[in-house]
Write a structure and sequence with these properties.
The protein is mostly helical. Helix content is 80%, strand content 0%. 35% of the residues are buried.
Length: 323
């Protein structure tokens, strides 16, 4: 039996709902105290919402980014936003120390990180894009160089930090869904919904951008304006995801390529929800394994980066064989 695209989407949605219910209700039996049930569900639903929100950010941003760059291997992390986030946290801890850093509210840290990362992306695109006659590849190349620069600077300052402070920093830099601030969650939700609404109105234009710059221009699209618009939207989504739970490098590459494989179409009205739902399936399923099977002995980001890294190598090997 061959399923249609809509049937596949509904099937994945049912799987996501099933895993989400399993995550929320695991270990809750009829003999469990009522107040304990309320506490368990209350703590788990915040984690679940953060997981689903991260899947939305990573899936949508990677799909849009691969469309405007016309490359299925690249991810938004190439422009260096993850490295900028690590650099911000490192510099704050280096100059302020652990005591002063802990006094800064989570919301202030979140807003500061978000503004700096989006500002960095805007500078990268607005300045460099114009100087090189609107070459998106030049922007990506500069992003890659700056990514290396910020990574090196972060490593340098981390070598100078007190070992106890370094442990605190490492804890913050690993993507984690185990300690989510509720205020950050609702702020992130508002931002993501706003960005998705803007993106959804331009899905057909993304279909045209997938055909390439020359074809898009010949069909009457303002290519430069559209690429800048989507570049900023991608930057906002990645910044929200990174500032909320930390960097997750290979998740986007994994879910978007799986979406292309399961849904062989150019239509972003199918690919966008598919990427988001597959991301949700991967994150919720992974969190169930990490939390209930491995009993939090490792981080979900470690497993995702391991699987995503292997998948990335397989893609490169496949590309080299095709050539």
């Amino acid at each position: 039996m061959i399923l249609t695209f809509k049937q596949k989407l509904w099937l994945i949605l049912v799987l996501v709902i099933t895993l989400s219910a399993l995550y929320l209700l695991y270990g809750i039996g009829p003999d469990v105290n009522k107040f304990l049930i309320i506490y368990m569900v209350n703590s788990r639903y915040k984690r679940l919402l953060a997981i689903l929100l991260t899947a939305v950010c990573v899936g949508a941003s990677t799909l849009i980014f691969q469309t405007i760059s016309n490359n299925r291997i690249l991810t938004p992390s190439i422009i260096g936003l993850d490295s900028v986030y690590v650099f911000i946290q490192t510099i704050m801890l280096f100059f302020l120390g652990s005591q002063q850093t802990l006094k800064i509210s989570a919301l202030s840290n979140y807003c500061l990180s978000l503004l700096i990362m989006v500002g960095f992306a805007f500078f990268l695109f607005k300045v460099l894009f114009k100087q090189q006659e609107y070459s998106i590849y030049f922007v990506l190349l500069c992003g890659l160089v700056l990514n290396t620069l910020f990574s090196s600077l972060s490593s340098f300052f981390q070598m100078l930090i007190d070992p106890n402070d370094f442990l605190i920093l490492q804890t913050n830099l690993f993507a984690s869904f185990n300690a989510i601030n509720t205020k950050l969650l609702w702020v992130s939700l508002i931002i993501v919904v706003f960005v998705l609404l803007i993106s959804w109105t331009s899905l057909r234009k993304l279909d045209v951008l997938l055909l390439g710059k020359d074809v898009a221009i010949s069909l009457g699209l303002d290519y430069d304006l559209l690429v800048m618009k989507f570049f900023i939207l991608v930057s906002i989504l990645i910044s929200v995801s990174t500032a909320l739970v930390g960097p997750i490098t290979f998740l986007g590459l994994l879910v978007v390529n799986l979406a292309y494989h399961i849904f062989p179409t150019y239509r972003h009205s199918i690919l966008l929800p598919a990427s988001i739902l597959i991301g949700m399936l991967a994150l919720v399923g992974g969190q169930i394994i990490v939390q209930y099977v491995l009993t939090l002995e490792t981080q979900l980001s470690v497993i995702l980066n391991f699987i995503g890294g292997i998948y990335f190598i397989l893609i490169l090997l496949k590309e080299s064989k095709d050539k």
